[in-house]
Amino acid sequence: MAWLGVDVGGTFTDLVLFDRETSRLEVLKTPSTPKNQADGILTGVERLALDPARLERMVHGTTVATNTALERDGPRLAVVSTRGHRDVLVVGRGNRMAMYNIKAPPNRPLIPRSQCFEVDERIKADGTIHRPLDERQAEELGDLLAAEGYTAVAVCFINAYANPAHERRCAEILAAKLPGASITTSSAVLPEYREYERFSTAALNAYVGPRMRHYVGDLRGRLEKAGMRAPLTIMSSNGGSLPAKRIEELPVLSMLSGPAAGVIAATHVGRAAGVPDLITCDMGGTSTDVCLVRGGEFDMTTEGRVGAFPVKIRQIDINTIAVAGGSIASATAGFLKVGPRSSASMPGPACFGRGGLEATVTDANVVLGRLRTDRPLGGEIHLDRAAAVDVVARLAEQVGLGVEAMAEGILRIAAVSLAGAIKEVSVMRGIDPRDFALLPFGGAGALHAADVAVELGMTTVLVPPLPGNFSAFGLLVADLRRDLVQTRVVRTDETSVEAVRDQLKVLVEDAQEELADAGYGPDRTRFSASLDMRYSGQSFELSVPVALDVADMAVIEAAFARVYAARYGAPTAARVEIVSYRVAAWGLSEKPVLPPVDPQGRALDAARTGMGEVVFGGVAHPTQVLARDLLPPGVSIDGPALIEEAGSTTVVLPGWSVALDAIGCLVMRQT
Predict the structure, then answer these.
(1) How far is CA 536 from the centre of its chain?
(2) What's the number of CA atoms in the CB half-sphere (13 Å) around residue 17?
(3) Per mean pLDDT, which range of 2-11, 445-454, 546-555 is the poorest?
(4) Which GO terms describe its molecular function (predicted)?
(5) For residues 401, 404, 405 and 409, what is the CA-based torsion angle, rounded to 10 degrees?
(6) 300: pLDDT confidence band, cut at 50, 70 and 90?
(7) Ranges assigned E (strand) in 238-326
């Protein structure tokens, strides 16, 4: 029997197949199919010669929900709000996105004001009903929406987090009038306060719902027709997987599924390699995601965004930058920039031979010899060096540089941009990146890792096994995870520890029910709790971990004081508030094990596949080319070198060395 992880990126669809009987991992890359991601997945399954009936588990990371939101090509969406609050999504926070431009236009809202509707109702912040829901108005609104062809509705009432009764009743009325429509209530998606973020998250959930349901249903149907009987699960933004049925109900949970899987895989490999302090760098064809991991743990956040829209669901704290292998280099008024425009998978970089006409980061790597053209990229894309030289030369002519100098300039700008993204999750938070190892993955991560490390003063790079398919591997490592939250604002001196435990218990019971529905018994579950807390009068909270059976309110207050002091300095004497209660629930899954590297048949002479000329610092260096699969463990190799494998190439700079460790990681160090 086997497990399959499938991660769909902007350029490639990555598959990792784990055979439980032999503990063998098989990887594959196939071009993504943006019009229907399922086409690329089925192509990959066919190329793996996989009988879907053998699958016990399939975990999928998808960008369908994210792309729908970013491209704004979802269904016609209506938002129904409490009378007097139809402008919440339009006004937002009123923040100026371009800080120093007083004339900068505001971000365009997800929907125009004309698609925001109101009904009479009002619930107070304590959950009591101030004005009953006017059901006649809700029925009339349902008739109007049906007549105008709306297929998605988000019901977002003020203070619905404290009492969801009005939202639920309104949704029932609208569902009767709009059969088949995607109807979301904000209290079901995010029972937290802060109307704008809650409304935005609920609206996005309704907006991406129809397409996500169609996609998941189509994929599942095609796999079942091919013989698959295993349950399909989808990666969520918090680093855990969920049954496809749950994602169909709450598709907003899958907004950052691919990047999250990579971080999960990185923590798994980092622990196995004895390197728990990592900065991940997931560089694909369209964007790069970075995340800081300390002691084998990553931070979570509720401040995520998809484009201009806040998504307040709990997610791994990942910073994304639009610089990657397919990023287009351009010159404006003599200034060179790389990204944010991308060639994506179609047509792709010029060297792909699919009609790309602008220089990209991948083209620059081909020009400099870092990517060789004698082996297909991803197993099937034959690189055209002449096409890469042509587009880089045209750009070089615009700024008065030679072709190789232009290519090195493109890579230098890319490295500086990536280093800047890493500084945002490290230096800007008072953390020195030099105390961490850089763990690159994605199709382009290992190509640029040493350059990025040099920019940051980092001296260790850990290239994991399967770097080109690493996020797909992370899908197989991830446990099922669900995060639940409930806002109940109360001062600690006005409540009791029993009340805190009772509220957490309610969330745990809800999580237990959901885990049980997914087939996880008590022996395969784990729970943790935290409280969002602040001093009275403050606007924002800190997450404070607490035990589910916390013994005393003084323990909670002391924990908050420690977290506050670590973030801001000494605590104050102000009163303390609990704002929201959170429970994280895991359904524990079996995981593929990375076996120790078998030295049998591995030797340095066997690993050497040739020599090449690679340009470093304007000078062409004779550079040995090695096959990663044949490298013997523990043997140090001095750079420059190219280490090739399916789906990725690792560049070892002059002045660096590399060795294969016991579990198959390439450890690069500055000498």
Answers:
(1) 34
(2) 21
(3) 2-11
(4) 5-oxoprolinase (ATP-hydrolyzing) activity
(5) 120
(6) confident
(7) 241-243, 278-283, 288-294, 297-298, 300-301, 304-306, 309-311, 315-316, 319-321
Per the listing, tokens 């006649």 go with 136
CA 253/CA 412 separation, integer angstroms: 36
Yes or no: say if 631 and 620 are a contact pair by the CB < 8 Å rule. no
At 238-266, the pLDDT tens digits run: 999 999 989 998 999 988 776 889 999 99
| Alpha-helical segments (H) within 320-469 | 361-368, 385-399, 403-425, 445-456
Question: Measured between alpha carbons, how far is 291 from 259 in angstroms, rounded to an integer?
Answer: 9
Average pLDDT over residues 481-497: 93
pTM of the model: 0.87
Residues in the chain: 671
What is the number of other CB atoms lying within 10 angstroms of the CB of residue 26?
17
Give the whole-angstrom CA distance, residue 460 versus residue 437. Answer: 5
User: Cβ contacts of residue 158 below 8 Å, gap of 6+?
Assistant: 81, 82, 85, 122, 123, 195
**Per-residue tokens: 659:** 């060795």
The DSSP letter of residue 251 is G
**Nearest alpha-carbon partner for 651 in 416, 369, 284, 404:** 369
Q: What local confidence, expressed as pLDDT, does residue 378 receive?
A: 64
pLDDT number for residue 416? 96
Mean pLDDT on 39-67: 88
- Half-sphere exposure (Cβ direction) of 55: Cα atoms closer than 13 Å: 26
Helix then strand then coil, in percent of the chain rounded to 5, is: 35, 30, 35
Question: 174 by DSSP, 3-state: which?
Answer: helix
pLDDT in tens, 509-534: 999 999 998 889 999 999 999 999 99
Two tokens, residue 289: 């995601």
Residues 6+ apart with CB under 8 A from 458: 279, 433, 434, 436, 437, 438, 452
Tell me the C-alpha distance between 407 and 404, whole Å: 5
Within 10 angstroms of residue 114's Cβ, the number of other Cβ atoms is 8
pLDDT digits (tens, 9 = 90+) for 169-228: 999 999 999 998 999 999 999 999 989 999 999 999 999 999 999 999 999 999 999 899
pLDDT at 97: 65
Rounded CA separation 562/321 (Å): 33
Q: 354 is written with which tokens? A: 């699919």
The three state secondary structure string of 175-227 is HHHCCCCEEEEHHHHCCCCCHHHHHHHHHHHHHHHHHHHHHHHHHHHHHHHCC
102 contacts: CB under 8 Å, gap ≥ 6:
96
**Amino acid at residue number 660:** L
- Nearest to residue 320, comparing CAs of 349, 362, 291, 279? 291
Q: Which amino acid is at 524?
A: R
Two tokens at 638?
């001095």
SS3 (DSSP) at 6? strand
The C-alpha angle 283, 642, 616, rounded to 5 degrees, equals: 85
The amino acid occupying position 385 is R
